[in-house]
Design brief:
The chain contains seven helices and 15 strands. It has about 260 residues and is α/β, with parallel strands linked by helices.
Length: about 260
């Protein structure tokens, strides 16, 4: 079933009115008609199954026939990803949304080759996150924060924070996570901030500054991962260790 995120105000009681891009996709791309069913989400964690009763240019409307809660990861992983060249940052947004990352912060580092994103690029990134959330069955949209400098990111970060580094002496990710186990009851590691460097990695001065801000260095194994895959690997490992990759029944299924 096709899934669409819509503003909460599009849902009123049992009626749903879909406008803009999703309505265009329903009518002109997917060629759906009255009587077809779609899933609509309002970014609250609820999914509404809707039977379309009218599809016209720019608008699609229908009535809710069922509602269910979508389980989001119990551990919130916020990815502080350095800016990357070309479409590599888009790959990070798409795949990490699929795996369960709950937030993204673009970070400009000393060795970053990409520029700060403009408004147009930020809007494109939000669309990529939305499409990946629809495809992967997310109930809430991961948040995309404005781009910041590395020092700003380190100084403002709150809660357990890890920075991936290559070479040198760094405790492995598994050892760090198991020394302070992730818990399902919103314990110390209910939120994990994860810093991933640019194509050339973090500079020694950046790693030193991160340490003074309480960000712990962590190793991701003996292989050298690309900048666009390191965050995906680390986020998946964190969510695996927390039990968030275990299958389970949806929360609170029920008829509307």
């Amino acid at each position: 079933m096709y899934r669409f995120f819509v503003p909460a105000e599009c849902i009123r009681n049992e009626a749903v009115v879909i406008r803009g891009g999703p309505a265009h996709q329903i009518r002109d791309v997917l060629r759906l008609k009255a009587g077809d069913r779609v899933a609509v989400l309002d970014d609250s964690g609820c999914e509404y199954e809707v039977t379309l009763d009218q599809v016209s240019r720019g608008t699609a409307s229908g009535r809710i026939c069922s509602k269910r809660d979508i389980a989001e990861p119990g551990t919130e992983v916020v990815l502080y990803q350095s800016l990357l060249k070309g479409t590599r940052f888009e790959f990070v947004l798409q795949k990490c949304t699929e795996v369960g990352v709950c937030g993204f912060v673009p970070v400009a580092c000393e060795r970053s080759l990409a520029r700060y994103p403009d408004d147009k690029k930020m809007e494109r990134w939000r669309r990529i996150i939305t499409e990946a959330s629809e495809q992967s069955g997310r109930g809430k949209l991961p948040r995309l924060q404005p781009a910041v400098s590395f020092r700003q990111a380190c100084q403002s970060v709150q809660g357990p924070s890890l920075i991936a580094c290559v070479g040198g002496v760094a405790t492995g990710l598994r050892s760090i996570l198991r020394s302070r186990p992730l818990t399902a009851d919103r314990g110390d590691y209910a939120k994990v901030n994860l810093f991933i460097g640019p194509e050339g990695g973090f500079s020694p001065s950046e790693l030193e500054f991160a340490s003074t801000c309480g960000v712990s260095a962590v190793g991701l194994g003996n292989r050298v991962l690309r900048a666009e895959t390191a965050g995906l690997v680390a986020a998946a490992a964190i969510l695996y260790e927390s039990g968030d990759l275990e299958p389970g029944p949806p929360l609170g299924n029920g008829e509307a």
